[in-house]
Design goal:
Layout lengths: L1 H48 L16 E6 L5 E4 L8 H14 L3 E4 L4 E6 L6 E6 L1 H73 L5 H29 L8 E4 H9 L3 H6 L3 E6 L4 E4 L1 H18 L5 E9 L2 E9 L29 H11 L3 E7 L2 E9 L3
Parallel strand pairs: 7-9
Antiparallel strand pairs: 1-2, 1-5, 3-4, 4-5, 6-8, 9-10, 10-12, 11-12
Helix pairs in contact: 1-3, 3-4, 4-8, 5-7, 7-8
Length: 394
């Protein structure tokens, strides 16, 4: 799929580039040819109306080799001009008939290499012929140059399109790989509890002695599956587009303070000390439910990974036009290589099979990104800290 998308991108780019090259080069050829023809006709008309000898050329006026043909009163051919051999009457009659056969007041005789135009008064019209070989040669060279430029431009655009296609499709490729990994991880997470449930159900059906234990295992795995499915649905809702005009100004200080209240007994039961230092009156533009969920995820993560008889600290302060929320806890340090990995889906610090499904921090990251903020983790000296930076409300 990604390869087809890349090929489609290149084809669209090349179609647009080729069309633009053809239009531009075609316009260059057209207007150059029109300009050369108009310049030649002006010179021919000037030569017919005001014959001048050598050295009589006016400044800025174009003079080209030309001759005139005119029919006399008795049908005889009158030819004038000093740059041509006018003794070949058959040739002169041929070009005269060819010019008159066109029925146009001006034109080009490619076979003879001559340009002609009708000049003089209507009662005594004069046909002026000029050498067009230089003009035709110039146009041929221009066509060759345009073809060279067009081919070179086509190849350059092709190379650039290939690079752009690879760059433009890279996010799609990454999203596709992440989606495949997500499906594989979700399948793996669901497979384990389903296997346990099926095994215990079969043992129950066979009349196993330890009936209560089998039922407890089934209930535990069912609750784990329900938590996983709810987390997946929550993650899908966070990833969904939310209209920014639905945001409201939220007292973030009060929201974080309210989020701390239900966690105080949880920390107390685990023998953990919970400290908080929150600046008052700090506000953000956002969705209150999502921001409350964000604070809850970070607090739950802190109590889950805090060291026994340890502590956790919550700080909220303003830094310029940003608000910085920091949740720290004393516990097992996070390896440097895992500081970014833990925000990926199904990445967690505890061994597989224990509490949690590895989606909490992914949901938190999605909420922060929805609010145009940033979340990151730091670890050092036995302290793990999660920072959230959000734009302050004006």
């Amino acid at each position: 799929m990604i390869r087809r998308l890349r090929i489609k991108f290149v084809c669209i780019n090349m179609a647009i580039a080729t069309g633009m090259l053809c239009v531009i080069l075609g316009m260059v050829l057209h207007f150059t040819g029109e300009g050369l023809a108009a310049e030649s006709l002006r010179g021919m008309q000037a030569a017919a109306l005001e014959p001048m000898g050598p050295g009589q050329r006016r400044p800025g006026e174009l003079r080209i080799p030309c001759f005139t043909l005119q029919l006399g009163p008795h049908g005889e051919l009158i030819a004038k001009g000093s740059s041509y051999d006018l003794t070949d009457e058959a040739f002169l009659r041929q070009v005269l008939d060819a010019a008159l056969a066109t029925g146009e007041p001006a034109g080009l005789l490619r076979e003879a290499g001559l340009r002609f135009c009708l000049a003089g008064p209507p009662e005594r019209p004069v046909l002026v012929f000029a050498d067009a070989s230089g003009e035709l040669a110039a146009m041929e060279r221009l066509v060759e140059t345009c073809l060279f430029i067009g081919c070179a431009g086509f190849l350059a655009f092709l190379g650039l399109s290939l690079l752009l296609a690879r760059w433009a499709v890279r996010p799609v490729d990454m999203a596709w790989q992440q989606q495949r990994q997500f499906v594989a991880d979700a399948s793996h997470e669901l497979k384990t509890p389903l296997t346990v449930i099926l095994t215990n159900a079969e043992l129950l059906q066979d009349g196993g002695a330890d009936r209560d234990r089998f039922v407890k295992n089934i209930l535990d795995m069912s609750r784990r599956m329900r938590t996983l499915v709810e987390s997946l649905l929550e993650l899908a809702r966070v990833d969904g587009a939310l209209a920014e005009d639905a945001m409201e100004t939220v007292d973030f200080s009060r929201l974080v303070s309210d989020a701390l209240l239900p966690f105080e007994p949880v920390f107390f039961e685990r023998g953990l000390r919970l400290e908080s230092r929150l600046e008052d009156g700090l506000a953000v533009r956002g969705f209150p439910d999502r921001l409350r969920q964000l604070a809850g995820i970070l607090l739950d993560n802190a109590q889950k990974y805090a060291a026994p008889r340890g502590w956790a600290k919550v700080c909220l302060r303003r830094e310029g036009r940003w608000l910085l929320l920091s949740v720290s806890n004393a516990g097992e340090p996070i390896p440097q290589g895992m500081l970014e990995e833990i925000f990926k889906r199904f990445r967690r610090g505890e061994p597989s099979g224990t509490e949690g499904c590895g989606l909490g921090l992914s949901i938190a990251q999605g909420i922060v990104q929805t609010h145009r903020g940033r979340i990151w983790a730091e670890s050092g000296d036995g302290v793990n800290t999660f920072h959230v930076r959000l734009p302050a409300a004006r």
